[in-house]
Amino acid sequence: MSVDTDITMLDELEGILEAQISLARRGKIGDVERLSEQAGCLVKKMAQEGISESVEFRPRQEKLQELYRRLVLIVTAAKAQAAEQLQQVGQGRKMLETYRRSI
Which of 11, 21, 34, 99 has its CA at 20 to 30 Å from residue 62's CA atom? Predict the structure, then answer.
């Protein structure tokens, strides 16, 4: 692979991660998942090409890792929020059932 191709793939991965972060912040987790498939294919191709061993990769590795960490934190927070909302819905259902039985 050429240096330009390596840089292009690194730029593309960085762009995908930034887009995922933006989508996750807006609660569009389905879109984040679709981009994850794209990122996965790109990472697989990068691994096959040995980009992680290239000189171009090393300076960018820390930024890519930081973007990934941010994405994971945002998705984890969204997951926790969804779990809390589901718990509240469950409690509401129990209250309604109790009320219905008492009538």
Answer: 34
CA–CA distance, 29 with 32 (Å, rounded to integer): 5
Residue 1, CA distances (Å) to 41, 44, 64, 77 in order:
17, 14, 20, 38
Cβ atoms 6, 51 nearer than 8 A: yes
Residue 79 CA, distance from chain mean position? 11
Q: Domain limits at 34?
A: 3-102
> What gap in Å lies between CA 22 and CA 28, rounded to an integer?
9
Number of domains in the chain: 1
More confident residue, 6 or 31: 31
Structure tokens at 41: 């294919």
pLDDT of residue 1: 55
**Residue-wise pLDDT tens digits, 4-20:** 888 899 999 999 999 99
